[in-house]
Amino acid sequence: MNSDEFIGKIKSFNVIKIPTSHPEKILNKLLLEDIPVLDVHYDNGCLFFKAVNRDLDRIDEVLKKFKTKYERVKILGAEKAARTIKKRVGFICAAFVILVAAFLFSRCVWRIDIYAARLTNEAEIREFLYNNGIKQSIPKSKIDCDEIEVMLTKQFEQIGNAEVELLGTRLVITLVEREAPIVMFDKSVPVDLVAVESGVIAEMEVYNGTAMVSVGDYVNEGDVLISGVVNYEFQEEPGVSYVHAMGKILMYKNIEVCDIIINKYLPLDNTGYLSEKRYYLFGKTITVGSNHEHDQYMYVEETNKPVKIGWFQLPVLYDEIKWYDISGCRQKTKEEISTELSGILEEKLGDKISIIDITYTAVEGENGRLNITCNVKCAYNMAIEREIK
Question: Which of 8, 100, 307, 329 is placed for a possible disulfide with 316 were both Cys, Cβ 3.0 to 4.6 Å?
Answer without folding.
Answer: 307
